[in-house]
Amino acid sequence: MSLSTKAFCELSMVLTPVDDMTLLCGETTIRTGPLQSGRFRVAPANATLSASVSASSTVKFLKVFFAEETARAIGSAIHSHSIDIEMEDPMLGTDDPFLVSLGREVVENINDPRPTSRAFAEEAAILMAGRVVSHYSTARYCTSMAVRSRGLDPDLDRALQLMRDHICGTIDLGMLATSVDMPAFSFVRAFQKKYGLSPIRYHRHMRMEQAKTLLSTTAFPIGKISNMLGFSESSHFVSAFRKATGRTPLAYRRTRS
Q: Which residue of 5, 48, 190, 228 is most buried, as measured by CB atoms within 10 A?
């Protein structure tokens, strides 16, 4: 996926083990050997690299391109200054379970046509960008380029109210960030700091709490509750509820009857 047509850097992550991988820069061999699942490389988007892969089964890769404006905005949000970003190069050898879990979430949701899944993929990609800038770059401060400082604890009530207004439907990160007049990454960072969950996960939590209430206090069929909560199909509701609670809606209802 791409966050912009003008790419600043790229992250390449292997999602399955590789028996042998040779990475070349021109005629120079940079690395060769087996590669564990979750290894990644952050590099300038214009890096001229080529790779040959040997594997006994299908190999899955994720490649994400980050825009220069995205990197600058995230760096400014982290450091409260306008900065220049220079990428470091972990060369496929760094363990970062958080970044790997975000990458898998992008892959899991990006091709799912359901709006909720797309929202999860978008949020995961924003958090990936933040991780790359905060952990795998160096920042050079530019005092001549001042940016407006935004507090880390803005009035997030407008975003919460928007979530409540859309509790029986889907919502996207752009709507929420706009409601509090913040860039997407700054909003996610502030929201997670205050509430302990990212915005899209918090919204899912609200929907599942509403589902629990309906299952406990009404005799509505599962299909009706699914429809009331804005799920396009009952199976999607059942899957989301099981993922959130570890039980199916019917199993949960039985424990409350």
A: 190
